[in-house]
Amino acid sequence: MIESALNGFWQAIQPINLLLTFAGTFLGILVGAIPGLSSPMAIVVLLPITYGMDTLSALLLLIGIYVGTKLGGSYPAILLRTPGTPAAACTVLDGHKMAERGDAGLALGYATMGSTFGSIFGWLSCLIFAPLIASIALKAGNADIALIGIIGLVMVSIFTRGSMLKGLIGVALGLLVSTVGNDPISGVPRYTFGSIDLMSGVPFISALVGVFALGVVLIDIKIIGTKSFLQTDKINFRLPSLMDTLKRWPALLIGSIYGVLVGAIPGVGAEGSTWLAYATVKKKSKNPELFGTGIPEGILTPESSNNAVTGGALIPMLTLGIPGDGSTAIMLGAIMLHGLNPGVTLFKDSPVLVYGMIAGLLTSAIFMFLISWKAIKPFVIMLQRDRSWIFPFILVFATIGAYANNNTVYPVYVALVFGVLGYIMEKSGFPVVPLVLAIILGPIIEENMRLALALSSNDWYTFIATWPRKLFVLVLLYLVYSEVYSGYKSRKTAQV
Amino acid sequence: MKRIKSGEITFCLFLIGLGAFAYIYINTFRQASASNNETFNFAAIPSIWSLVLIALVLAHMATLFLGRGRESDPCQLSKQELEEQKKNNIKIGLRTLFAFVALFLFVVLLNKINFFLLIALFLLSMFYILGQKSIIRNLSVSLVGSCFIYLVFVVLLQLPL
What digits encode the pLDDT tens for the residues A114-132? Predict the structure, then answer.
């Protein structure tokens, strides 16, 4: 294991991989800094660039983007009072207040320090816990894997925005869509209507491109023309001293711990962790009334939290094949595109790749710090750009991404259909992340369910035959029950 | 009274229809397939997911109708503000529709017209739809953008587009 870890780290610091990590981090900060653009969109749009690359190199580029967007989102949050990404919404509270006082440069400095600390904490957590969880996951049988997949999807439905019921509807739709194509066990075509293209199923990359790029652009057309007001004309970036930052260690540590824990839960995302961490640090503070007036802890907490999420979200993705959020779902897709099987055996089959990806978290954190410290000006300029110049290019890149995989138009049509579906779902208040995750996990769940039943002669008892499985089912039932109960209680309260 | 969005109801009805079609289609096909005698065969999982989808959508529609009348509408806007909001919504709606039409045509014409000429035309039309009125600026950015995409994807990355 140590040899694989060292090998993975060595691969990650090869010049070409370092260059790609740097490029990804730079692009990530840029994308995060522009309100309306998101990490999943950037990753899916840049996916075609990775087709011809080595798997680790491709993933390091994507990880760089993933890490970079977390810091980039704080720039408009501080300067324009508009978060660049949903995860930076909490940073607005104190970040913008500090900027109003004339300390915009210092606020950006605290955001940089917080993000870097959170990223490094996330990297350490992933490095320590991922191998432990992977070794436990290797003992999982078919029924265990199916149950873990179902629990993951239910958790996504519960913790994603909107009601659990809407999330579960997205899951059911995604699972149904994932059955299109040849049956994985008997080879019988399902829902192909005689089409050769449909026999290979719905290409999930096209679904991701459609939902996260085409659909999001169609939704975000409404923000074009909205004016941004830059808080200050000259931004003098000021990095706070290390001692000054470390003396606020409770904010950093609590933010980071929340980030890792929440990141590891599929579907919650960074925005959930930042608010939880902020509320906790405020509660524990000797001067809670100062939060929201522009204090450093008010920036350090959410920024360390939203960057620590990157390490947390990678843990279930690398060990169980369950993505933590939309960005890791696309990275999972990228792993599958390169012919690897992202499941419980990924750690065993490709340890160098996995440790290389974990190392990428550290190198991208370092690059993120350096880029923000020394080259913030281009990002400040870009965040004022009118999105009407950017959105058409995103649509073109996304279309190329769907087309270049097979050089046929079929995946592009699929992307278009999912773009429209994503648009309609967002407009109707249905979250799209459960749909996408269900499309990816559906085949894995089905195959393992049917194998488990075949091995037990169609005995459903196999799903609760062992203590871990009983626990999984209990967790599943508890999650659904608590969500239904809290919904019932809030309805009762509303009636009163 | 809390208003239920008609779009949401339409989408729910669409999902119910989709689930019903999926269930009926796969089970009609199963009967026709004589070689498959397993209990848990190729049609089982799609049948389960389609029934689950229908049940969940019906449950959601029930909560929508039951929740009606429990919350009051948020504070009312003035007549002028409502008019402005309506005009804005129409503008955004038209922009979205034209953007979708441009995207649809882009996809349909992908294999019929030179790819990079099509990209330039698509960019030009999109810039105009999204509010950029200067034809010269739109044209120059479209042409430069198309060349940039050619350089990156074909020359540098060697993608066979």
Answer: 999 999 999 999 999 998 8
Residue in chain A nearest B34 by alpha carbon: A188
**ipTM exceeding 0.90?**
no
- Treating both helix axes as pointing N-terminal to C-terminal, what angle do A55-72 and A297-320 enclose, rounded to 10 degrees? 160
Work out the percent of chain A whose per-residue pLDDT is above 70: 94
Q: Which of B15, B99, B126 sits opposite A173 (nearest CB)?
A: B15
Tokens encoding B154: 């074909």
User: CB–CB of A49 and B157 under 8 A?
Assistant: yes
| CA distances in angstroms from B39 to A284, B33, B93, listed in the order given | 58, 13, 49
Please answer yes or no on whether B149 and A396 come within 8 Å at the CB atom: yes
A102 conformational bin, left if phi > 0, alpha if psi -120 to 50, beta if neither: left
- A443 min Cα distance to partner chain B (Å): 10
Best CA proximity match to A66, nearest among A38, A36, A90, A34: A38
- Those residues whose C-beta lies under 8 Å from the C-beta of residue A282, and which sit 6 or more positions away, are A288, A291
Note the pLDDT tens digit of each residue in A264-309: 877 666 667 888 888 889 888 888 888 888 899 999 999 999 999 9
Q: How far apart are CA A116 and CA A99, in angstroms?
A: 20
CB contact under 8 A, A191 and B25: yes
Scan residues 37-56 of B and list those with Cβ closer than 8 Å to A: 39-46, 49-50, 52-53, 56
